[in-house]
Automatic annotation (TrEMBL):
Role, per record: Involved in the control of energetic metabolism and significantly contribute to cell fitness, especially under respiratory growth conditions.
Native organism taxonomy: Eukaryota, Fungi, Dikarya, Ascomycota, Saccharomycotina
Organism of provenance: Ambrosiozyma monospora (Yeast)
Gene Ontology BP, a term: energy reserve metabolic process
Pfam family name, one: RGI1
An example Gene Ontology CC term for this record: plasma membrane
Membrane topology: Peripheral membrane protein
Assigned protein family: Belongs to the RGI1 family.
The name this protein goes by in its record: Respiratory growth induced protein 1
Length: 194
């Protein structure tokens, strides 16, 4: 009877990071793949707790919530027109990305990301049998921190690529946070000489 109480999952609210601290000496984050939006959010939150939010490479493949709502969670009820060729699907997906996915990443990471749309395109494959609709968001800002905060930690960039293809309603999200290469003293001297 006591074991039932030990298995209960504990939900912890994400914390907001006000000040940067030194990065961990040993990094444990690696490339991860997810099939659930909740697992993705939980991992982003956990990496923030572990202070490894600046070095992530995550891939998520999921059915968007508006498709799950329309099909009542039953994949056999997915209609053939529920894909990126449908304007209504793209409009709903864009709304989901702008109003839910990106703000949830911001909330779960605890960092004030300022995602800006860097591109949107439809790319057909070589044979013309299907196409992929892509959105690209990026944040190359200071993420709400003062420049003095980066004395302990390097700057990092965040890129979010969202893809939806014309064969099914699944959405693929690639979330990458990577440190910015700081120029070395020799490189700085070479650029000032030229």
């Amino acid at each position: 009877m006591a074991k039932k109480h030990l298995r209960r999952e504990i939900h912890v609210e994400p914390n907001h990071i006000d000040h940067l601290s030194a990065p961990p000496k040993v990094r444990s984050s690696k490339e991860m793949n997810f099939d659930s939006l909740d697992d993705f959010h939980r991992y982003v939150k956990d990496e923030t707790w572990d202070n490894e939010f600046d070095n992530l490479n995550l891939r998520l493949r999921y059915l968007p919530p508006f498709i799950v709502s329309q099909t009542h969670g039953q994949e056999e009820k997915i209609k053939p027109q529920m894909n990126s060729l449908n304007k209504k699907f793209r409009r709903h997906l864009n709304h989901h990305v702008q109003r839910h996915l990106l703000p949830d990443i911001k909330k779960m990471s605890g960092i004030d990301y300022e995602f800006k749309k860097a591109g949107e395109e439809m790319v057909p494959n070589a044979y013309g049998t299907c196409s992929v609709y892509k959105w690209h968001f990026e944040d190359h800002s200071n993420h709400g921190f003062d420049e003095s905060e980066f004395a302990n930690r390097d700057h990092w960039n965040v890129n979010v690529d969202i893809e939806s293809n014309s064969s099914d309603p699944y959405v693929v999200v690639n979330f990458t946070a990577s440190p910015v290469e700081q120029p070395t003293l020799v490189e700085e001297m070479q650029t000032t000489i030229v």
